[in-house]
Amino acid sequence: MVGRHPHAHNRTVSPPRNSHRASGVGDPARAFTQRIRYRKVGSMKIGIIGAGNIGGNLTRRLSALGHDVSVANSRGPHTLKDLAEETGATPVTADRAADGAQVVVVTVPLKAVPDLPSGLFDRAAEGVAVIDTGNYYPQQRDGRIAAIEEGLTESRWTEQRIGHPVVKAFNGTYAQDILDKGLPRGTAGRQALPVAGDDAAAKQVVRELIDELGFDTVDAGGLDESWRQQPGTPVYGNRGDADAIAEALAKASRERTVEWRA
User: For burial by CB atoms within 10 Å, which of 109, 117, 135, 259 has the most?
Assistant: First the structure.
């Protein structure tokens, strides 16, 4: 999330049933990593598809943390030279971004999801966790997507098109926060992110990675409950701690507001 469209406890919540760019030298992402001390999840191979505000800053932070990051966009690796030089990440084509990856982040506009390469995860590591950061912006960007208008959650729609289970995270996070809002585990008021998904193992991997980035997490339930963190809900763009995020999730209404309908 950018601007108004976002783009020591990790809490699990059961919702009601009805209910800047960093420079190479003196990189703030690397400086952050050097001064913050908390548990590392171990170096992983991570593919990032999409190099916009969220994808670019995740590339910066995850590379600074020591992960082996490959990054792709729709314009080709040659357009990612500056980001690669800054971060040490490997620029690749989208069809190779998931090769050997243990985690893949899909962070492209929803309208671009159907154009992603087929067999995208065929060469990924077994059990790869796929993070979907997407949001449906029908009036602002994506146009009308009938299935979502009819009630299908945005991440379920994405999951069906890429043919792999996803974990919804970062969709309501301000991109700059990824660089400069992370804090050590246990810090009072640590910002928390909601995380939704059906695959418990994949969700745990994602939650641990978010913790390493410096944020708490709140389990927002399965993917069919992920409407609770879509645009227009109380948790969208919410910078609260775990308790505040849990409360915001519980207050969500499934009905889309006018701004977020086609």
Answer: 135
Q: Which domains does the chain have, with CATH numbers?
A: 11-260 (3.40.50.720)
Averages of pLDDT over runs of 10 residues in the chain (262 residues) are 51 36 38 43 94 99 99 98 99 99 99 98 98 98 98 99 98 98 98 99 99 99 98 98 99 96 97
Looking at residue 42, what is its pLDDT?
84
* Residue 74: exposure state from Cβ atoms within 10 A (0-12, 13-18, ≥19): middle
Per-residue HEC secondary structure of 142-199 comes to HCCCHHHHCCCCHHHHHHHHHCCCCEECCCCCCHHHHHHCCCCCCCCCCCEEEEEECC
Handedness of CA 153, 198, 73, 20 (dihedral sign): positive
pTM: 0.87
Evaluate whether 89 touches 59 at the Cβ level (below 8 Å).
yes
Give the strand order in the sheet containing 11-12.
11-12, 216-219, 192-197, 167-168, 129-132, 103-106, 45-49, 68-72, 90-91
CA–centroid distance for 122 within its chain? 21
Cα–Cα–Cα angle for 67, 55, 42, nearest 5°? 15
- Residue 199 tokens read as 């695959």
Where does the chain have alpha helices with state H? 28-35, 53-64, 81-87, 146-149, 154-162, 175-180, 200-213, 242-250
| Distance (Å, whole) CA 148 – CA 163 | 17
Q: Do residues 249 and 218 make contact, with C-beta atoms less than 8 angstroms apart?
A: yes
Model pLDDT, residue 5? 57
- Contact assessment for residue 185 and residue 38, using Cβ atoms and an 8 Å cutoff: yes
